[in-house]
Write a structure and sequence with these properties.
Main location: membrane
Subcellular location: Cell membrane
CATH class: Mainly Alpha
Number of domains: 1
Protein name: Iron complex transport system permease protein
Structural class: mainly alpha
Shape: globular
CATH topology: ABC transporter involved in vitamin B12 uptake, BtuC
InterPro entries: ABC_BtuC-like, ABC_transptr_permease_BtuC
Strand content: under 5%
Number of helices: 17
Order of helices and strands: HHHHHHHHHHHHHHHHH
Keywords: Cell membrane, Membrane, Transmembrane, Transmembrane helix, Transport
Number of strands: 0
CATH architecture: Orthogonal Bundle
Length: 347
């Protein structure tokens, strides 16, 4: 859909998707999330039965099954939290930049956060989870600004293709820098591994507790910006004519997305493509209205990342495949599909 088409069709799109239909989609996605959560607790290197699940949820760990459940519960919650954060951030980034290719991974934001954390650990001795989040957020913000600046240079400004190419180039460069920082530090190579690929294997309730305040602020900023993002989809001039404070709306939404990316990357590493795939799927079923799009993206993102984690644990038992690899296998073909759709140039 072209930018011109988008200005004339949102009302028609919304008319075809009445509120009760969109509510049913969200309810159905919540039900799917509940099923995936149950699978995440029950499946893994060792499958567990209902009795072990009930006992494990009650705090028991006298058997291997109960101990497995006790470890899988925080892992499931972390996968849900990170998936919801990345999907919401992706939807907001696409709305802020009016770029259908925007995604925390593709634009290099996740890798910028990873490099900041790895550098902090290697050279500044950072050990506090809270410090990880602050430095990851700073790295994410700096990378987002850098990529947008590069993509805005030259004729035509920040086009979707230029932003995607700039993000890919910056992401590749930052990934090389992460490797360069890691190579001479074999003493903490295990700690660094997560910031190369992305995973939720080291989950704990303590980690979740550390990121919740940052995620809460990020989600709140994104949700409060939903109506403004709808106006930005019409173009800056028309949005300003409708009374929208374009700069404030864009800055608030971008800050919310950066907080979500930074916090998610600080605890799970650079997991890519969730923020690209999920918003597009959500638009297909409920339309472009961000007031509905953002909540559905959060729920579907949580379900997708949790399902990807389950797949990674099951397909290679008793070992496991990091969730970042699974999402890349899902998202890379989808990215190619979006790029090859010549009609999709802006939101």
């Amino acid at each position: 859909m072209t930018a011109t088409d988008t200005r004339t069709t949102p009302d028609a799109d919304l008319a075809r998707r009445p509120a009760h239909v969109r509510t049913l989609w969200i309810a159905g996605t919540l039900a799917a999330l509940a099923v995936v959560m149950a699978a995440s607790v029950a499946l893994g290197a060792r499958d567990v039965g209902l009795s072990d699940i009930v006992a494990g949820l009650g705090g028991a760990e006298s058997t291997l099954g109960e101990a497995a459940v006790k470890k899988r519960v925080p892992r499931t919650l972390l996968a849900m939290t990170v998936g919801a954060a990345l999907a919401t951030a992706g939807a907001v980034m696409q709305g802020v930049t009016r770029n259908p290719l925007a995604d925390p991974g593709i634009l290099g934001v996740n890798m910028g956060a990873s490099l900041a954390v790895v550098t902090g650990i290697a050279y500044f001795g950072l050990t506090s989870p809270t410090s990880y989040i602050w430095i990851a957020t700073a790295g994410a913000a700096a990378t987002a600004l850098f990529v947008y600046t590069i993509g805005s240079l030259g004729r035509g400004g920040a086009t979707p293709l230029k932003l995607a190419l700039s993000g890919a180039a910056v992401s590749a460069a930052l990934a090389s820098l992460v490797t360069a920082v890691m190579l001479p530090r074999n003493d903490i190579a295990g700690t660094f591994r997560m910031w190369q690929i992305g995973g939720v294997g080291g989950a704990s309730f303590e980690k979740i507790g550390h990121i919740l305040p940052f995620l809460a602020v990020g989600f709140l900023l994104c949700l409060l910006s939903a109506r403004g993002l709808n106006s930005l989809a019409l173009g800056d001039e028309l949005a300003a004519g409708l009374g929208e404070k374009v700069v404030v709306t864009r800055a608030a939404a971008a800050l919310g997305a950066v907080l979500l990316c930074g916090a998610a990357t600080a605890v799970a590493g650079p997991i890519g493509f969730v923020g690209l795939v999920v918003p597009h799927l959500c638009r297909l079923v409920i339309g472009p209205d961000h007031r509905w799009l953002l909540p559905l993206a959060a729920v579907l993102g949580a379900a997708l990342l949790t399902a990807a984690d389950v797949v990674g644990r099951v397909v290679n038992r008793p070992s496991e495949i990091d969730v970042g690899i699974i999402t890349a296998l899902i998202g890379a073909p989808f990215f190619i599909y979006i790029v090859r759709r010549q009609k999709v140039r802006a939101l």
